[in-house]
């Protein structure tokens, strides 16, 4: 890889070009807000690093506990009792929703359980009423129970939870979990998702916004529209897009969504998750009821009959874990200051730059790009494929380049826009080149995993 910046169609490949882009980058100052030490941290799609704002928010919660004790639930700057709803208000603009439609609580998997369960129950309960403008049973004139449409490249926990919820309703998961297959082992074709809605008895389509391995960005608007035309509910797992890709869930009519808080939202390991429920579904009884989802006005009357909140807050279950939620106040503040559209713009440019460098520098060394090249089909990370991906990932980590490996042959590189620059990307590609050219990866065992 040369140092003199030879020209390309969109990006130049030299180091000086990378430095020039960093000097011009309006988001560059945000890097100082994050503690990434001297590492080239390219794993923010698994766990984002700590920021000053997130740490300050956590410290405020700790001080509230110290100074207020139990009074912290109802007193102080951010009373803990309302954490879920207040954080829902903060996150709502990132997903294009009203604050009442978003709440923070539970874990991503728990939220999949409760929302899939809720809407499976609804489908069974309302066979004679309209769902999203149409009656699913009238669509095909069948009394066959309607299942859930997923895809074979999903993150496994989605399938675990859905199969469990089907089984709880005595529906055989092997018959009622409908799986769209991939044509290339990397991506899912939207047309195949649409076709499956017609070919199978589907009540809910549940897809990721971004595939965790290849980084493919799904067409949420098209999938939602096609689902609703067939009387099918549309839900999405936004774990690999929230905080790096803007969404307009309410505008396009998505029925429900879930996400985590520890990837691009940078709220820390085990950060509390979030969920969205379109307001037209307010009043549904959550499949997993718990006292924290009770109507807040009467929650402490401690009635034995559950009265759900009249908004998305109903899908909270247990007491909010304060110290797992507090950092979100700070991390969302940073995203808001940067602007989600500016974050997305830089993300697309960084990933395009990484793809260009891979083509120019790494392709003849056996590295290929396993992510979509079209900007509107790509999330925030790039999948680099190589037969020795596992060992190359380990060698990169030992050189201070933090990436992760996904079987069978993917190095995931996530140039998160708030703390990664163009020279970082340049140096990562240079490190991969050296590791391959010098045979460094051969020093590592073939067994083991890099998470």
What's this entry about, in short?
With 451 residues, the protein is α/β, with parallel strands linked by helices. It has 14 helices and 13 strands.
Write the H/E string, N to C: HEHHEHHEHHEHEHEHEEHHEEHEEEH
Work out the helix count. 14
Shape: globular
Measured as a percent range, the helix fraction is 25-40%
Q: Structural class from helices and strands?
A: alpha/beta
Our estimate of the beta-strand percent is 5-15%
Low-pLDDT stretches are 2-9, 130-141
What is the end-to-end distance?
29 Å
Give me the side-by-side strand order of the main sheet. Answer: 2-8-7-6-5-3-4
What's the total count of β strands?
13
What's the overall average pLDDT, rounded? 93
Radius of gyration: 23 Å
């Amino acid at each position: 890889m040369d140092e003199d910046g030879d020209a390309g169609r969109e990006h130049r490949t030299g180091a000086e070009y990378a430095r020039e882009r960093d000097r011009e980058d309006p988001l560059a100052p945000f890097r100082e807000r994050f503690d990434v030490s001297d590492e080239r941290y390219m794993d923010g799609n698994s766990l984002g690093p700590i920021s000053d704002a997130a740490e300050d928010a956590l410290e405020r919660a700790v001080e509230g506990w110290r100074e207020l004790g139990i009074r912290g639930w109802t007193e102080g700057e951010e009373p803990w009792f309302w954490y879920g709803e207040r954080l829902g208000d903060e996150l709502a603009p990132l997903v294009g929703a009203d604050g009442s439609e978003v709440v923070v609580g539970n874990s991503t998997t728990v939220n999949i359980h409760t929302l899939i369960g809720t809407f499976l129950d609804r489908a069974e309960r309302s066979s004679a009423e309209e769902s999203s403008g149409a009656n699913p049973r009238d669509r095909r004139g069948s009394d066959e129970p309607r299942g859930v449409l997923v895809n074979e490249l999903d993150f496994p926990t989605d399938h675990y939870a859905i199969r469990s919820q089907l089984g709880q309703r005595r529906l055989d998961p092997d018959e009622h979990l409908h799986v769209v297959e991939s044509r290339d082992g990397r991506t899912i074709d939207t047309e195949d998702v649409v076709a499956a809605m017609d070919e199978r008895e589907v009540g809910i389509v549940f897809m990721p916004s971004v595939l965790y391995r290849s980084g493919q960005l799904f067409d949420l608007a098209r999938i939602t529209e096609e689902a609703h035309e067939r009387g099918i509910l549309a839900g999405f797992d936004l774990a690999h897009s929230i905080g790096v890709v803007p969404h307009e869930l309410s505008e396009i009519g998505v029925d429900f969504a879930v996400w985590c808080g520890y990837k691009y939202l940078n709220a820390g390991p085990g950060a509390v998750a979030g969920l969205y429920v379109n307001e037209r579904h307010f009043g549904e009884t959550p499949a997993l009821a718990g006292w924290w989802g009770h109507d807040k006005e009467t929650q402490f009357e401690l009635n034995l009959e559950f009265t759900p909140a009249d908004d998305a807050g109903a899908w909270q279950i247990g007491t909010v874990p304060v110290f797992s939620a507090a950092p979100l106040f700070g991390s969302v503040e940073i995203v808001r200051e940067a602007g989600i559209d500016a974050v997305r713009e830089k993300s697309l440019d960084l990933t395009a730059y990484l793809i260009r460098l891979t083509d120019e520098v790494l392709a003849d060394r056996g590295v290929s790009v396993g992510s979509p090249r079209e900007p509107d089909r790509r999330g925030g990370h790039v999948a680099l494929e190589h037969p020795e991906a596992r060992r190359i990932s380990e060698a990169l980590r030992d050189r201070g380049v933090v990436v992760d490996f996904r079987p069978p042959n993917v190095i995931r590189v996530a140039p998160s826009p708030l703390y990664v620059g163009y020279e970082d990307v340049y140096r990562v590609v240079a490190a991969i080149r050296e590791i391959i050219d010098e045979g460094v990866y051969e020093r590592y065992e073939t067994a083991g995993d890099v998470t």
